[in-house]
Write a structure and sequence with these properties.
The protein is of the alpha/beta class. The protein is built from 10 helices and 11 strands. The strands form 3 sheets. Strands 3, 4, 5, 6, 9, 10 and 11 form a 7-stranded mixed beta sheet that branches. A two-stranded antiparallel ribbon has the order 1-2. It has a two-stranded parallel sheet with strand order 7-8.
Length: 302
Amino acid sequence: MDDWSDYNVCLAVAETGSLTAAAQELGVSQPTVTRRLQALEQRLGEPIFDRENGQSRLTVLGKKIVDHAGRMREEASAIQRAAVAQDQSLSGLVVVSASEGLGADWLPRALISFQTANPGICINIMIKNHSANLADREADIALRWNGPGTQQSLVGRRGATVGAGLYASKDYLDQNGRPNSVDDLSDHACVAWSMGDFFGWPSTDEGSAVLPRHVAFKANSPASHIKGIDSGYGIGVTSHRLARRHQNLERLLPEFNTSLDLWVVAHETVRKSARIRAAYDHIIQQMKIDQKYFSEGAASHL
């Protein structure tokens, strides 16, 4: 009888596009993925993937297998969710997914009082720059930007509004001048997000986009992004809560303020678990306590 986990390997390769990426997703070595995939193909007597230039593309058989395996995974996840929902004890594991800026900074401080009050619970914070699949139990709770997402059967609440503005290092401004208006930003270098405009530069009053002289630095990490601003690469848009920690940063054009809503999300079935519901409500409560920390960059109360 085939091992279900072998089909899970097929799903990972199909979804990530390569053996190496699938190995990273599954937390195993690339040779292990290759060996298990080859063994499954040998048992089936046909290839599941065509491999070309380091990429893996599904064959006709592979598409059928992945289609069936995807439904198998959904059913397995549903069984797990149902089991978790029945657990009304305040003990066990709670997995919370968050982006680096929150998961490595605010979230551990926000959850320490919860874990202290519930010593039987283990907190596992999963740092992800993409949305965790809550239906597949990648996490029990997720912190997400601007809504719960399009996945069905999710419940979410807006916990905080994160404010942001334009910042640059004083050293950079002393050398390059300080912009007096939005139009002046076109004379300056930009510190940008490599994953797109996370907060985005301001536009003129007429709605026209203001383009920087050039993009001097890019990052997909909040810590690296604000370090680029602090190091003097140029002007960037970052949250007030992160900027307040860097004494060398100066806020520019304070009339410009942008924001993103921060949501706390869980699967409607899993949230029936006592420990997950308690952790969910605790995170919401802590966000409300720290409302000005998120919106204005005031000192945290945690």
